[in-house]
Amino acid sequence: MRALITNDDGIASPGLHALARGALAAGFDVTVAAPHVDSTGVGASVFAVAEGRRVKVHPQVLPGLEQVPAFSVEAHPAFIVHAAGDGWFDPRPDIVLSGINVGANVGHAVIHSGTVGAVLTGALKGWSGLATSLDCGLRGRDGAHWESVVGLLPEVLEVLLARPRGTVLSLNVPDRPAAEIGPLREAELAHFGSVQVRVEHESGVEGAPGTLLTTISEPDEIPAEGTDVALLAQGHPTLSELRSVSSVPGLLDDR
């Protein structure tokens, strides 16, 4: 099977390289295409830096992955996935693997994640997808346990490929050595994510533009049992099936 590997942390992310190595070890024919800069928080945006309708694609040689076709793209991850299915790659990918994200993607806040947005975009084309994330904080750290995610790939990919085409799964893994993490658990999405963003408006002085000051903190509420946030804090890797955009019938039935 042909796997497109992408992310929202950019082409230089060690998590991206670890995921590509894991996909190779799992027997996939791998192509890497990722944003040229960090695109965290872009969701399913298809923004691209276009000059005369042309988006620049820079061939890359990734360390330890010299045999893998790799590209740095001046675009967001969902655009990259969209392009892969509409004329860029021939043959087209069979599956989209996204990540390994720097930081957990949990709760309903996954709607903002470029890592998740990439696989949801692939689902619109009928491709199954897996978003992978390591709970190592927003900025990551030296010595992050990327291989703990890679070690779970065979088990999780078996689950994914047994599901109907177009299935999207999200895997979150504690930043611990593989021997210290608990069993894989299916998880509901928490009401909130792993962080809370607060925005304060600061007025400008003497006609100068105002600003929006953002601060990030841990949520105040305690996560419900069985949710991804709670299970991850207990040391369990979590797996959740996500659904893409769909309509709900019956809106005017009672008129």
Which SSEs are present, and which pair or pack?
Layout: E1 2-6, H1 14-25, E2 29-35, E3 50-51, E4 54-55, E5 57-60, E6 70-73, H2 77-88, E7 95-102, H3 114-123, E8 128-135, H4 146-162, E9 168-174, E10 185-186, E11 196-202, E12 211-217, H5 228-233, E13 238-242
Parallel strand pairs: 1-2, 1-7, 2-6, 7-8, 8-9, 10-13
Antiparallel strand pairs: 3-4, 5-6, 9-13, 11-12
Strand order in the sheet with the most strands: 5-6-2-1-7-8-9-13-10
The CATH superfamily is identified as: Survival protein SurE-like phosphatase/nucleotidase
Specify the CATH architecture. 3-Layer(aba) Sandwich
Strand content: 25-35%
Helix content: 10-25%
Evaluate the radius of gyration. 19 Å
Strand tally, please? Answer: 13
- Residue windows where pLDDT falls under 50 for at least 5 positions: none
What's the CATH topology label?
Answer: Stationary-phase Survival Protein Sure Homolog, Chain: A
**What characteristic shape results from the CA principal axes?**
globular
Along the chain, the helix and strand elements come as EHEEEEEHEHEHEEEEHE
What is the number of independent domains?
1
Q: Pairing-aware structural class of the strands and helices?
A: alpha/beta
EC number: 3.1.3.5
Enzyme class: hydrolase
Catalytic activity: a ribonucleoside 5'-phosphate + H2O = a ribonucleoside + phosphate
Domain Survival protein SurE-like phosphatase/nucleotidase: 4-185
